[in-house]
């Protein structure tokens, strides 16, 4: 895999309004630095400990995104530096992020994860729960956390029509919410296998890992 060429390819292919989040989980720092030298500045990880180790060692102008399911008891480790948490699926988690952000005198941006896939394995909440969170008194009082958009993962399937319909559904929900809450600007959907459909459906952020860095090593 030529990581640097892959970054350049995506940068040239993606529309200007779509951010590339390079998913670097399980990859060594030297691989991330190849992407960094090719101009990539946004990296996504799904384990807080691994992300923190990388943050400590790598250049400080990197924007770190937490893209995996987040456990509340680990938020404190990433609160000093994380730029965006993609997969927030409860008010409890938002409260914890707010508390830890406050301790670090920061504001942390978050996306609420909507469940659009038919698989049971995917996390997320439904549109009504999103509305409940955004309208809640608890959220109104949070000064150190900001919900800036929505995130979703399509069903892992070769059926492109199904993926397209899930992404279109999420975009419709996003548009409805954006009318009510103008601060919602980001829509994170699309990964290595389905990012082209996500772009077509109006994503503002794609999460691409194996197509940049090669297959993951889970040993």
Largest sheet: 8 strands, parallel, barrel
What structural class do helix, strand and pairing data support? alpha/beta
The DSSP helix count reads 10
Mean pLDDT: 95
The assigned CATH architecture is Alpha-Beta Barrel
How many individual β-strands? 8
What is the alpha-carbon Rg in Å? 17 Å
Task: Write up this protein.
The protein is of the alpha/beta class and 219 residues long. It has one domain (3-212): Alpha-Beta Barrel (TIM Barrel), CATH 3.20.20.10. The chain has ten helices and eight strands. Strand 1 (19-23), helix 2 (29-37) and strand 2 (42-45) form a beta-alpha-beta unit. The longest helix is centred in the C-terminal third of the chain and has 21 residues, at 160-180. The mean pLDDT is 95.
Fold topology:
Layout: H1 3-13, E1 19-23, H2 29-37, E2 42-45, H3 48-57, E3 63-66, H4 75-78, E4 84-88, H5 91-103, E5 108-113, H6 127-135, H7 137-141, E6 145-151, H8 160-180, E7 186-191, H9 195-200, E8 205-208, H10 210-213
Parallel strand pairs: 1-2, 1-8, 2-3, 3-4, 4-5, 5-6, 6-7, 7-8
């Amino acid at each position: 895999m030529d990581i640097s060429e892959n970054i350049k390819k995506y940068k040239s292919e993606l529309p200007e309004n779509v951010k590339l989040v390079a998913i670097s989980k399980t990859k060594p720092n030297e691989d991330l630095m190849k992407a960094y030298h090719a101009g990539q500045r946004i990296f996504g990880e799904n384990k807080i400990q691994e992300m923190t180790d990388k943050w400590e060692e790598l250049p400080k102008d990197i924007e770190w995104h937490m893209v995996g399911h987040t456990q509340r008891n680990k938020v404190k480790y990433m609160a000093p530096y994380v730029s965006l948490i993609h997969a927030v699926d409860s008010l409890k988690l938002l409260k914890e992020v707010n508390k830890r952000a406050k301790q670090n005198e920061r504001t942390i941006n978050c996306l609420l994860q909507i469940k659009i896939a038919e698989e049971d394995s995917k996390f997320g909440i439904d549109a009504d729960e999103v509305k409940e969170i955004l309208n809640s008194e608890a959220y109104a009082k949070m000064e150190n956390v900001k919900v800036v958009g929505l995130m979703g993962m399509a069903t892992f399937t070769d059926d492109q029509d199904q993926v397209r319909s899930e992404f279109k559904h999420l975009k419709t929900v996003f548009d409805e919410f954006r009318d009510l809450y103008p601060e919602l600007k980001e829509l994170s959907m699309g990964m290595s296998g389905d990012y082209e459909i996500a772009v077509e459906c109006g994503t503002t952020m794609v999460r691409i890992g194996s197509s940049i860095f090669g297959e993951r090593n889970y040993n």
